[in-house]
Specification:
Helix 6 packs antiparallel against helix 7 and helix 14 runs antiparallel to helix 15. The chain is globular. Helix content is 68%, strand content 0%. It starts with a helix and ends in a 14-residue tail after the last helix. It has 383 residues and is mainly α.
Length: 383
C-alpha cells in the first residue's frame, strides 16, 4: 500500500506534467491520456520495478540479508521516484516523461547523461538523475550489508541496466517488430504495427500492463518461496490441478468458439488453422493472462472454501494445510484475497467481458461456500 500511494503521487505529478506538455504542443498525438494507460499501466510498472529491484538487491546480499529487509529498503527508496517531477519543475524543464523514442538514445548519449541542457526524448533530466540516485543508493546499501566494494560497484551497474531495461524494452521490442534491426531516429513507438489491429485487448497499454502484471506475479511467487519455504510448499501441494485444468479447457474451448464467431461476423472464410491466429502478438499475451486469471480465481475460491470448511476438513480432509497447521488461517486468507485481486486485475486488463465473468464467478463461489450465505448447505443447490 505504501508503494502504491507513492506511485500514485508520481503518476499524479507526471500526469500534470504531460497535460502541460501536450496542450503546449498541439501537433503531438498521444495515447497517454487514456484512463487505462494512466492508472493500470503506470501502477503495474512501478510495482514491478519495486519488486524487481528488491529481488536484485536481495540476490547481491542474500548471505547477509533477508528478502523482507530488501523489500523495506526499496519501499522507502521509492520516494526517489518523486524527485524527477520536482527537479524538472525547479529547472523549468518541459521534456516529456515517456519511454525513449529510440532505445539507443540512452546509451549513445551517456557522455551527456548529467547535462541538463541535453535533450533525450522521453528521458527528462530529472529522470536521468533519478536512475543515478537509485543505482548509487543501491550500491551503498549493498556495501553496508556485504562490506565488499567490488560487489557494490558491480551492483550499481546491474541496477542501472535493470532500470534502463524496464524503461527501454517496449521501445526496443516495437522497433524490432516495425523495422527489424534498421532503427530510425524519427520513430515513435506508439505508431508501431505491434499495437494495431487488436482482437482481444482494448488498448496497446493493456498489453504492456499485462506483461508487467504477469512478471509481478512471478516475482511474488519467488519472494513467497524465498521468505516462507514451508508455507509455499504447503500451498503448492494443495493446488487443485485437475479441476484447474478442467476450467482452463473450458476457457480455451469458449475462446476458440468466440474467435470463430468473430471471424464469421467479419465475413471471412473460416478454417481451423485460423483459431487463435492474431496479427497483434499482444493478443496471445491476453490469452495467457486470461488463463492465469481463471486459474487464480479458482485457487482463491479453493482457499476460501478450505478456510470456512476447517472443522469439516479435520475429519474428511486431514491432509489440508490449515488442518496440519502448515500455514496460519490469517496468512491463508490473505493469500486468497491476493489471488483474487490479481485475477480481477488481469481479467480487467484483457477486456471487460472476461472481467465481468471472473467477478460473477467469484461472487457465486463466495456465496456458495462462505459465511454468512453458505448456500452449499441448502438442499439441491449443494449439488
Amino acid at each position: 500500500l505504501a508503494v502504491f500511494a507513492i506511485a500514485m503521487l508520481r503518476n499524479m505529478f507526471e500526469l500534470l506534467h504531460k497535460f502541460g506538455y501536450i496542450f503546449g504542443k498541439q501537433d503531438l498525438v498521444s495515447e497517454y491520456l487514456s484512463v487505462y494507460g494512466i492508472f493500470l499501466h503506470f501502477m503495474s510498472f512501478w510495482i514491478f520495478v519495486w519488486l524487481l529491484l528488491s529481488v536484485v538487491i536481495f540476490l547481491f546480499t542474500k548471505k547477509e540479508n533477508s528478502i523482507r529487509n530488501a523489500l523495506k529498503f526499496t519501499m522507502f527508496g521509492m520516494f526517489i521516484i518523486l524527485f524527477p517531477v520536482i527537479f524538472d519543475l525547479l529547472i523549468g524543464n518541459d521534456d516529456m516523461m515517456l519511454y525513449p523514442n529510440d532505445p539507443r538514445d540512452l546509451f549513445f548519449n551517456m557522455e551527456y547523461y548529467f547535462h541538463i541542457e541535453k535533450k533525450i526524448f522521453g528521458l527528462s533530466p530529472g529522470m536521468r538523475y533519478e536512475v543515478a540516485l537509485v543505482s548509487f543508493s543501491s550500491g551503498i546499501y549493498i556495501w553496508l550489508k556485504s562490506k565488499k566494494l567490488i560487489k557494490s560497484v558491480i551492483a550499481i551497474s546491474v541496477v542501472f541496466l535493470v532500470i534502463s531495461a524496464c524503461g527501454l524494452w517496449v521501445s526496443f521490442f516495437a522497433q524490432i517488430y516495425e523495422y527489424g534491426f534498421e532503427f530510425k531516429s524519427d520513430f515513435l513507438f506508439t505508431t508501431s504495427k505491434l499495437f494495431s489491429e487488436s482482437t482481444i485487448l482494448r488498448h496497446w497499454t493493456m498489453g504492456v500492463s499485462i506483461v508487467y502484471i504477469l512478471l509481478i506475479i512471478i516475482l511474488l511467487i519467488f519472494i513467497f518461496h524465498t521468505d516462507r519455504k514451508a508455507e509455499f510448499r504447503a500451498v503448492f501441494s494443495n493446488l487443485r490441478w485437475t479441476r484447474s485444468i478442467h476450467y482452463l479447457i473450458l476457457f480455451f474451448a469458449g475462446l476458440a468458439l468466440g474467435h470463430l464467431y468473430f471471424l464469421s461476423q467479419k465475413g471471412m472464410e473460416i478454417h481451423v488453422y485460423q483459431i487463435f491466429k492474431f496479427i497483434n502478438p499482444f493478443d496471445y499475451i491476453g490469452i495467457l493472462a486470461g488463463a492465469v486469471s481463471i486459474f487464480l480465481a479458482f485457487q482463491s475460491a479453493v482457499i476460501y472454501n478450505d478456510y470456512f470448511d476447517f472443522k469439516i476438513d479435520t475429519v474428511s480432509n486431514p491432509d489440508r494445510p490449515l488442518v496440519l497447521g502448515q500455514i496460519s488461517p490469517q496468512s491463508y486468507r490473505k493469500l486468497g484475497i491476493l489471488m483474487l485481486i490479481f485475477a480481477l486485475v488481469l481479467a480487467f486488463a484483457v477486456n471487460l467481458a472476461l472481467f465481468y465473468f471472473v467477478l460473477t464467478a467469484s461472487i457465486l463461489s463466495y456465496v456458495y461456500s462462505n459465511e454468512p450465505f453458505r448456500l452449499k448447505k441448502v438442499f439441491l443447490i449443494n449439488n
